[in-house]
Amino acid sequence: MKEKTEGAKMQELLSYKRKNVYEEADAARIKDIFDYAEGYKAFLDKAKTEREAAEEAIAMAERAGYRPYRLGDALQVGDKRYYSNRGRSVILFRIGENSLSEEGIRILTSHIDSPRLDLKQNPLYEEAGMGFLKTHYYGGVKKYQWTAIPLALHGVMVKADGESVKVSIGEEASDPIFYINDLLPHLAARQTAEPLGSAISGESLNILVGGLPYADKEVEHKIKLSVLSLLNEKYGVTEEDFLSAELCLVPAFSARDVGLDRALIGAYGHDDRVCSYPALTALFAAEDTKHTVMVVLADKEEIGSVGVSGMRSEIFMDLINEICAAKGENPALVRSVSKCLSADVTAAFDPNFADVYEKRNSAMLSCGTCMAKYTGARGKSGTSDATAELVAFVRGIFAKHGVIWQTAELGRVDAGGGGTVAQFIANLNIDTVDIGVPVISMHAPYEVVSKADVYSTHEAFVAFLK
Ligand code: MN
Ligand code: MN
Fold it and tell me: Most buried residue, 34, 178, 265, 277, by CB count within 10 Å?
């Protein structure tokens, strides 16, 4: 081989270069990456809502030896517990041997809710030979993307006596699906001239739910009645039970490989189960007894992390306080030395929409999990902006464990922006930095990620929790 020139050596020594996970991988490693993706796809297909993701996470936790925790339970070193917050969010933790006031708690947060269409509380009506359900969209959706695709109905209806009925229709091949009508191009002259954001209105996102009139000449609203009678037959519910229900429409697609080489995964709800799943697998893989670790699977991130099951709920602090009490440590001191990775997706650079990105500081597909020192919009507003010391600390861990990762911010300056739960954890005096998987078509009914980035995220979390 030709001797490297002085300049080439200097370049190697001094320059930073982003690496592509696939380019660095041999065949055995690519097999590991692809095998891991199979488990992730199975998780996605079972977990299309936060309640389903919580249930699946709990099943995984139980298999890994985790037991339910009730506030006030006694805790000791070695305990592996999970706290189910009303079935909509889950916090898992393991109590380690080491002193918490010295090394704090290692925390991984992610969220298990995704953008979708929720049913209104009084949703059912009929018109022009069709039965419909009214919706109110949840999170940042581009409304036009939700018309004319197969949708599935998921959720719970809770009866006045407290009985909870789980609903899932549209996932089995033999199930019917649901649908939102769109306008034929022949009559869409005015619609197609509208801006994307207003071409489909929120109140036109009505779910097509039936068309067969109830066989009784005497009654009115026959299609509505036949829908109600079918629901009653299947779930034992009445129209009034919609009033105390959480029902939503999600795409009826399952997770699939994308591309001839199967390098990518298409699915509904990568944001943010593509971080939640690695958080769980990393927690279960890192069987260490020294460190105290917590994994938070939060709800309501897509609408501001509010409410009892959101990241801003006091339950997070309550659990930290209980863990500290069990170890006889001062929680304020423990928080001040704890570290958190706020795991959420970021936007992958997309050459089809290159003008909203700044290429040097964008996440590139397949270049590994992506750390964002700050998020925010309009002059970094709304970001907790992690300290350089924390970024260096995490970077050091990744280097030690051979994790391929990258750094980015979300889009060009002033192109838009966004943020997630990091700020709420940082507000508690816990050092927090954003990290997660780059996504193509984020918040679309079908999003795309690279298998390489999902695996890199798992490896990064294992390294962090060790
Ligand atoms: Mn997210
Ligand atoms: Mn999101």
Answer: 277
Domain annotation covers residue 336: yes
Same-domain check for residues 284 and 396: yes
Single out the residue of 143, 132, 141, 122 nearest to residue 206, CA to CA: 132
pLDDT of residue 20: 98
Count of the separate structural domains present in the chain: 2
Task: State which amino acid sits at residue 12.
Answer: E
Q: Give pTM, 2 decimals.
A: 0.97
Domain contains 262: no
For residues 156 and 40, membership in a common domain is answered with no
- Ligand number nearest CA of 437 is 1
**Of the residues 200, 219, 251, which one is the last residue of a structural domain?**
251
Write down the pLDDT at residue 419: 84
End-to-end CA distance of the chain: 40
Domain at 347, CATH number? 3.40.630.10
Neighbours of ion ligand 2 (CB under 5 A): 271
Q: What pLDDT does 3 receive?
A: 87
The ligand minimizing its distance to the Cα of 303 is 2
Residues 124 and 68 reside in one and the same domain: no
SS3 of 356-379: the string is HCCHHHCECCCCCEEEECCCEECC
What are the b/e assignments for 368-396, b being 16+ CB within 10 Å? bbbbbbbbbbeeeeebbebeeebbeebee
153 part of a folded domain: yes
Give the model's pLDDT for residue 361: 95
Q: What pLDDT shows up at residue 289? A: 84
Q: Are 460 and 403 in contact (CB under 8 A)?
A: yes
**Is residue 105 helix, strand or coil?**
coil
Q: What is the pLDDT of residue 2?
A: 79
Q: 185: Cβ–Cβ under 8 A, 6 or more apart, which residues?
A: 192
Low-confidence ranges of the chain (pLDDT < 70): 1
Domain that holds residue 177: 116-251
Using CA atoms, how far apart are residues 205 and 154, in angstroms rounded to an integer? 17
Give the pLDDT confidence score for residue 1 in this predicted structure. 67
Residues less than 5 Å from ion ligand 1, measured at CB = 271-272, 344
35 in the same domain as 123? no
